[in-house]
UniProtKB/TrEMBL annotation:
The chain crosses the membrane at residues 294-312. This is Metallo-beta-lactamase superfamily protein. The keyword Transmembrane applies. Pfam families: Lactamase_B. It comes from Hymenobacter mucosus. It comes from the Bacteria. Residues 27-240 form the Metallo-beta-lactamase domain. SMART domains: Lactamase_B. InterPro entries: Metallo-B-lactamas, NDM-1-like, RibonucZ/Hydroxyglut_hydro. Keywords: Membrane, Transmembrane, Transmembrane helix. CDD domains: yflN-like_MBL-fold. Coiled coil: none annotated.
Amino acid sequence: MSTTANRATTPSLAYVAPGLWGLRNVFVNVYYVRNPNEPADPWVLVDAGLPGSGTKLAHTADALFGPDNPPAAILLTHGHFDHVGGLPHLLETWPNVPVYAHTLELPYLTGRSSYPPPDPTVGGGAMAAMSFLYPKKPLDLGDRVQALPEDGSVPFLPGWRWVFTPGHTPGHVSFFREEDKLLLAGDAFVTTKQESGTAVWLQTQEVHGPPAYFTPNWQQARTSVALLAELNPQIAATGHGIPMRGQELQHQLSDLVENFDHKAVPSHGRYVGQPAEADATGVLSVPPPASLPASVWIAGASLALLGGLLWLKKQDKH
């Protein structure tokens, strides 16, 4: 089946690189990956989108790989609501498909712990302001989720390795294909200003740090971005924003590393001076919340979120 036909029927689906397609699910990206050298090999899904997106994700898989051809696995960069929302439907649709995540991410995927609360006071945009209303309860995937291999290999994807990139979450990982230096960075860094509703709507393309409102450990986030920059990626496909490539990607990523405190770390906020603490059991402690802004933006954020949820519900019916 031609990719041209696929894009005609699923306009938010885009070819990124050999063996990699990205699907924009409202404001978050999901990736379909297979071995480009062996088209008959199994394929995998990386992340699972927003709540209510499962039907769309499964239909897109059918368009790409044919019906009755489920993935060999679902790989998670992390377990925030906008990266796992389609899992309940997908795991019911694909009853034998396992889910893989870093061992430090498992408490948030087995119902054991919630993530540290978001901080709506950072970021200065509508997406940040709405974050206090985002779903917070963990999924409980039971024995359907397991830890990624300790040796750094990626199940069913030869030539790929996972890279430990905590900060945005305790067990956040990125995926890297050495052959062409293709990076799936999740939310370790993103390619749009995710805190801004305008930037997200327009998909303004530029390298930014992890979404500030959901990042509870800035020290780890800084180290993770520097680690990814050292890989010298030629293509970066991130959890939010349009994939970037080549010299522009490398220039902006290097600039982010050199000026991380200025460009990524908020000037104030709940986790700026003191990170949340977590281990393999989940969250251990969080600092006290920062003072909330005026109620005007809270009311506006509530209305915006309500509109967004209604729009999401409508989209899932198509």
